Amino acid sequence: MRVSLSLCCVASLFLAALARGDSSKQLAHRALKLQFRVSQSQAACPVCQEPEKVGTTSGPLVETSGMAASLLHTGVYYAVNDGPETPTVYAMDETGKVLHTIDIQGVETTQAFGKAGNGDWEGVATGPCDQGGLAATSDGPHCIFIADTGHNCARVSEKCSYNRKVYSILRLPEPESLKEVQSSIHGKRFWYRYPNNIVHDAESLLMTPDGQIYVVTKVDSGASTVYWVPTLEDGNTVEAQKVAEVTAPLDGSPMFTSADFATGKDNMIIGITLRTYTHVVFYPMRPGKGVPQEIKAAFSGQPCNLPAPVEKQGEVLVWNRPQSAFFVTTSEASGSAISKVRCTNVDALAKRPPPEQHRSASFAAIPLLPVMAALSLIPAAL
């Protein structure tokens, strides 16, 4: 495999060199650099099994658009509907059984948006209620965050002219107990905007274990933008900051519809997983806390393709917590299958050596003979 990858890399670069008139020395440098990136990425990829059906969405979840793993209740997920009739969160297990219903109070808004005026809910995350504060630890208190970030009219394909001016993220505490069928919990709605009042459609919400928030836009084509949302402020609209760009695999849908961090021991982030309607991709990270510089570095690397369940309109992907061993997906349609993808080496990724050690191992493994044989042809061709 390594030999074929080397020859493939050289062949691609050879053709590019002919077009640009590059020297063989420049080409050799590019070939080594590219193979290093491929080798490094493969070394940090989860090894996952094929998707298995474990359940079906049911009951009040008629248009599931977001889901997050509970930090208090093992095996429980919080799910929401797209454009809900009422501000409601459903606690469910992986089979789709609804265990508890949360009615959110205090999140009404005069900036009504969405089907019923409650917003266009597209993602869910769990994390510390006190973002970046002294209480922002894995020990809690824990909150549920809901991304009211959908905006179909921001995409040309939707052919509509309405533009929402601001976007919101709702926050409410995780319920301490799920024994009762229903509860009422007071929440808060926080506002943010994009730089220069740009409009975006976004369905992917990410939250680090210490409360950093990221949003990934949904586009008709080309690159999506990854934004960092500063600490939410009551009564103030914060401005998101661009961190990186990311492009979906070219052989499938360009639209990112969900995202989640994979975490290892000590709540360290070891990778970023995104899904489209056709693919699931994983961007490896050196174990870290997910600060913007780390996120930017991760998206500059090569992603891994993970098994992607075949779903009509898949808009959910969530890793289990606290230590990632599998992820769960489902579709927006009512009565959709819930799939689980088990990954066997995620813990090992958290223990992998720093990039310097990867570099030494990768270059030592490069099969130089086929590389140099191909390079020897370049001066004559040029």
Question: What are the SSEs and their pairings?
Answer:
Blueprint: H1 2-20, H2 24-43, E1 52-56, E2 64-69, E3 77-81, E4 88-92, E5 98-105, E6 121-128, E7 142-148, E8 167-173, E9 182-186, E10 188-193, E11 201-207, E12 213-218, E13 224-229, E14 237-239, E15 241-246, E16 256-263, E17 269-276, E18 280-288, H3 292-299, E19 304-306, E20 314-319, E21 326-331, E22 337-342, H4 346-349, H5 355-364, H6 368-375, H7 378-381
Parallel strand pairs: 5-9, 10-14
Antiparallel strand pairs: 1-22, 2-3, 3-4, 4-5, 6-7, 7-8, 8-10, 11-12, 12-13, 13-15, 16-17, 17-18, 18-19, 20-21, 21-22
Helix pairs in contact: 1-2, 1-6, 2-5
Polypeptide structure, described:
- The chain is built from 7 helices and 22 strands.
- With 382 residues, the protein is α+β, with helices and mostly antiparallel strands.
- A 5-stranded mixed beta sheet has the order 2-3-4-5-9, with no helix packed on it.
- The two termini are 29 Å apart.
- The N terminus and C terminus are likely disordered.
Using brief descriptors, characterize the structure shown.
382 residues; Tachylectin-2, Chain A; 2 domains; five-stranded mixed beta sheet; 19% helix; globular; disordered N terminus
CATH fold-level name of the largest domain: Tachylectin-2, Chain A
What topology, given as strand order, has the largest sheet?
2-3-4-5-9
> What is the helical fraction, as a range of percent?
10-25%
What's the number of domains? 2
- What's the level 1 CATH class of the largest domain? Mainly Beta
Low-confidence blocks of residues: 1-18, 27-41, 354-382
Could you tell me the radius of gyration in angstroms? 22 Å
Q: Specify the CATH architecture of the largest domain.
A: 5 Propeller
Instruction: Give the overall shape, derived from the CA principal axes.
Output: globular
The structural class is alpha+beta
What is the overall pLDDT average?
A: 84
**What's the number of helices?**
7
**N-to-C series of helices and strands:** HHEEEEEEEEEEEEEEEEEEHEEEEHHHH
Sheet having the most strands: 5 strands, mixed
Quote the beta fraction. Answer: 35-45%
